[in-house]
């Protein structure tokens, strides 16, 4: 008879495993591509509805970062310190890759963050390595590598020695490269910038976090640049453990003139049961690295700013900001006897409203800016909400045209939700714009739920929206954990 194993004891058992510690047995992952959702379904299975699947070996772990491009997907695998480039046409069970890019420094977590930085002269693949140590005096200072022309995938066997240039952290424990982002022109100098999060110390405060902004360097004899040569941006009052820079957007304009605004999330800002915060910095002459023009704050324990994405739901000239708040649900926490949940939510701030605040005398507005709408999961009962108390809706966000209707769908991850007895199976919820209601005649409605059905699958923790086959309709690429 099969044994029913609990926790770490499961490693020596042949039977099923129950309990939170069983998650340690789910240390591998698969990648599933779901094509355009032209005919949205209310409930989809990420495995059964995948057009292609890439099954990785156990040695690859599951802590991946995804970046889609026209033709395939690049995977960051920080546990191995390498990237894998997958062609969309060979994204099959064989696990075929067309390229591998490996770090020359063991243990540097190379691949922890990915993005593409487009400049007037070149396109760069940006890769974060937050545990890099440039020398004995800069242990875990972190680094970010820039590879010209690799943003659209790569072939063959490459290493970090082939980088065009790199930026290294200037002090031990800085963890530069925790997140990387390609930006527009933020300061009005005619050049597009990039942004690098350093999750370590800032302003002498442990784990406060900072963001470093720079542009194309003037190379000397060395392609290595110190982060002291970049602009340091941090919260007006750095807080211990605030995770400033956990999410960064910097490629859209919220002000007149078309220059990009830097938007930074700090989900653990506020201390205690952190409300979280999002800081919006001015563009061009209004850009001040020491003082944001606008600060958005969440409810107690909501962790506002854990994830962010742009979309346009009202078809005006301004991008709309969606912000994940995967922490406490303020409605459930205050209804009847308070219960602590992390059911989560996603808040929408219309770009027109943000523009009004950013371009007006701030003294005209005495009240904090409130979201125009909030997306939540519809719990049927308090018992259900208690059971799924760690759903974490808004943990991850992305957007794109998934149905070919020339409008953005909002893709929301809630990796902690259970599926019956399967703990943390996770789910992805797709919201689309319908034709009746608010926002100039439009409302957001939930159209599709892609739900995991295995324990610790964590569907919704890691995914990317990208048009892999260049057909004008975005694809959804989902990473799921699986048992070793």
Quick rundown:
The chain is mostly beta strands.
Summarize the structure in words:
The chain has one domain: Methylamine Dehydrogenase, Chain H, CATH 2.130.10.130. It is built from 4 helices and 33 strands. It has helices at 330-334, 351-358, 382-387, 438-441; strands at residues 5-6, 17-18, 28-34, 43-44, 52-55, 65-69, 72-77, 82-87, 99-102, 113-118, 123-129, 143-148, 156-159, 165-168, 176-182, 194-198, 210-214, 224-226, 231-233, 247-249, 263-266, 277-280, 294-297, 307-311, 320-325, 345-349, 373-375, 396-400, 409-414, 427-434, 443-451, 462-466, 475-482. The strands form 8 sheets. It has a 5-stranded mixed sheet with strand order 4-31-30-29-28. A 5-stranded mixed sheet has the order 6-7-8-9-13, with no helix packed on it. Strands 10-11-12-14-18 form a 5-stranded mixed sheet, with no helix packed on it. The chain starts with a strand and ends with a strand.
Which key features would you list for this structure?
5% helix, 484 residues, Methylamine Dehydrogenase, Chain H, mainly beta, globular, 5-stranded mixed sheet
Low-confidence stretches: 1-14, 435-441
Described by strand count, sense and barrel closure, the largest sheet is: 5 strands, mixed
Helix content: under 10%
Alpha-beta classification: mainly beta
* Strands in their spatial order, largest beta sheet: 4-31-30-29-28
| Spatial shape | globular
Mean of all residue-level pLDDT scores: 84
Radius of gyration: 22 Å
H/I helix tally: 4
CATH class wording:
Mainly Beta
